[in-house]
Amino acid sequence: MGIQTETVTPTKTGLREALKRFWKPYSRIPLLGWLVGALAAVLLELIVGNQFGRLLGMSKAPALLGLVIIMKSPLLIPSALAYVLVIYLLPVGIIARVGTSLANRAAAFLYQANTGLSAIIHLALFYAVLHLWSNLSDYRLLVVKLTLIAIIITLSLNVVNGYMGEFSCSHPGFLALGAYTASIFTIVLFVNENRFGDALLPPALGPFLFPIGLILGGIFAAVGALLVAIPSFRTRGDYLAIISLAFMFIVLSLFNNLEFVGGPRGLSNQPDYANLPTVFIWTVLAVWIINNFVRSTIGKALNAVRDGELAASTMTVDTRRTKMTAFLFSAFWAGIAGGLFAHIIRYINPGTFGIRKLAEVLAMVYLGGLNSVAGSIVGAVGFNLMGEALRPLEILKWIIIPVILILLMIFRPTGLIAFTELDPIALLKPKAMTNEGGDHVAA
Amino acid sequence: MSLLEVNKMTHFFGGLRAVYDYNLEIEPGQIRGLIGPNGAGKTTIFNLITGVYTPTEGEITLNGSSIKGRPPNQIASSGLGRTFQNLRLWRHMSVLDHVKMSQFSKITYGLTGAFFGTPRRQREEAEIEEKARGLLELVGIAHLADQIVTNLPYGAQRRVELARALAMEPSILFLDEPTAGMNPEELSEMMNIIRHVHAELDLTIFLIEHRMKVVMDLCQIIQTLVFGEVIAQGTPDEIRNNPEVIDAYLGKEVEV
């Protein structure tokens, strides 16, 4: 035993040391530098991606960082790895590292000039990266949009299940309410079709009034949430889980039986309003507003309610109102996400918002980590990428994903990044040269 | 007029009479004590006055207005702060956030501020943070402000709880066994802190305690509670020499 540990430990720490030394120069790169590097990489891919992919034996550039290839045609894994290395990792690494001091100076300048402007420039760069990257195939575009929506959904559920510590199951119901409301809004007003007749307004106005439809969807979802909240927040315990699950099924059977929205056949013909910029802006808004909320003392009252409701109310916190607000707020964002979802897929039916959706949403929240905005983003992105990677396995996917989740619950019960606070301002800051590496997540 | 007045308060848990005919009058600036054997109903009395339970009978007035039957958060915001016997801290929250949280009712920026981070919110958050840091200074744990409470030693956790209660700016503070589970060193520090905040903040204090030394040293008037009834009330000396109190604590001598 003794000998074994002696031999194993030094190599392990040696490897860790080596990684640390390797990472050290990179830890000084500010977010701005990474974004510029990523922009260069996607530009490179746009120009030579397909040719390079063919050169490596693939039909074109791999769609999702080679993730789909792992299961589809494992023989191509080396080519996919080579592709990711040459097209993404090397350019990002080289450009970000070479431009470290320049990026730091630029970030410092922007940070001191105007934080809001700095944030907008960062977001614009990030959007440019997403836009160019998703330009290469419709599949990528769809994955990016659905992942962005997944971030809204996960974050909004985290407000209830993570920050407030109650277990809510009604998110698919809220998604459905939002999706149907927004769909009816746009179809009635801007589309000529059989069910609802001719468009009431000129379709050119559609994209501008689309946000109103989304917000209406959010409000409907919040009204639904009120119906759940009134009976279930009288006490703590499992009531919310049961009532919210019932609510989800009530909403589903409602839409299944309402003939004017198509019953089980669903609604189609939604106009194509949810393009990438729209989805991106809504996602940024959701992340920003939810993050603002959970970092305020009003939002932190949720944590107080979770960790000790009696103490919270004795410390002047209006617990009932706090819980209600958070639940309605969460449902509102789920409604928005539902509306966006309906206009991305452009077809919805009640079956889309069933128990499997619930499992997915819960999985994203618990994978990413409770009580953490960064965790929810990681969870939503990670789960969606994992889902796409495992898609070729078809039904087996639904065996492997739960197994992964079970393992996660055993080894990391609170999720990947739990109980952290995300300070967006810190992300914009330049990295000081004396910085002791390793905090690039800045969570 | 008394600051806090409790009149003929009685409370039943089902068929169990937990508190019977309890009366209390606290004048501003006093330190009052409540002692009694385990299970006498001391914490129940705290819970009844602070609104955790609503008394079956009786009247409670704070600053001249009735607070009976009002929810705990309203009673708390009208000036009644408390700590708990078994430290009800919020385990994932930092020390600073604890002390900020109990100023919840003073926040006026509302949801708009919470959602959009308005300048008004920044200003108010800065104000309550400054006040919180001041209170942490007062109880001597300013250096622990950013720690998560579960990482702190017991004595420091007690101080967090005290600072949290003080942040509500109470006119009267209820302390439920403030020195429970402390070693002698922590105990004397805690007593100094209590004396200090009493003087510094001109605070009225009502405390439950098991350690006679603490009660006798701190309090001006002490009540003794046995089976939900007050059997004696008076100055520390009167209580110390009251035969009924001695009986309740030490048991009657058995006649042989």
Number of domains of chain B: 2
> What fold name stands as the CATH topology of the largest domain in chain B?
Rossmann fold
| N-to-C order of helices and strands of chain A | HHHHHHHHHHEHHHHEHHHH
CATH architecture of the largest domain in chain B: 3-Layer(aba) Sandwich
| Rounded radius of gyration of chain B (Å) | 19 Å
The helicity of chain B comes to: 25-40%
Number of strands of chain A: 2
Rg of chain A (C-alpha, Å): 23 Å
CATH class bucket of the largest domain in chain B: Alpha Beta
Structural class of chain A: mainly alpha
Biggest β-sheet description of chain B: 6 strands, mixed
Please give the count of helices of chain B: 10
* pLDDT averaged over residues of chain A: 88
Q: What is the SS-derived class of chain B? A: alpha/beta
Helix-strand pattern of chain B, N to C?
EEEHEEHEHHHHEHEHEEHH
Number of helices of chain A: 18
Biggest interface reads: A-B, 27 and 38 residues
Work out the count of structural domains of chain A: 2
Can you lay out the helices and strands and say which pair or pack?
The complex is a heterodimer of chains A (443) and B (256).
Chain A: H1 2-27, H2 31-55, H3 67-72, H4 77-98, H5 100-113, H6 115-134, H7 138-163, H8 171-190, H9 206-232, H10 239-257, E1 267-268, H11 276-295, H12 297-307, H13 309-314, H14 319-345, E2 347-348, H15 355-368, H16 373-389, H17 397-411, H18 424-428
Antiparallel strand pairs in A: 1-2
Helix pairs in contact in A: 2-4, 2-6, 4-5, 6-7, 7-11, 7-14, 7-15, 7-16, 8-9, 8-10, 8-14, 9-10, 9-14, 11-12, 12-14, 15-16
Chain B: E1 4-13, E2 16-26, E3 31-35, H1 42-49, E4 57-62, E5 65-66, H2 72-77, E6 80-82, H3 95-101, H4 110-116, H5 119-138, H6 154-166, E7 172-176, H7 184-200, E8 204-208, H8 212-218, E9 221-226, E10 229-234, H9 236-241, H10 243-250
Parallel strand pairs in B: 3-8, 3-9, 6-7, 7-8
Antiparallel strand pairs in B: 1-2, 1-4, 4-5, 9-10
Helix pairs in contact in B: 3-5, 3-6, 5-6
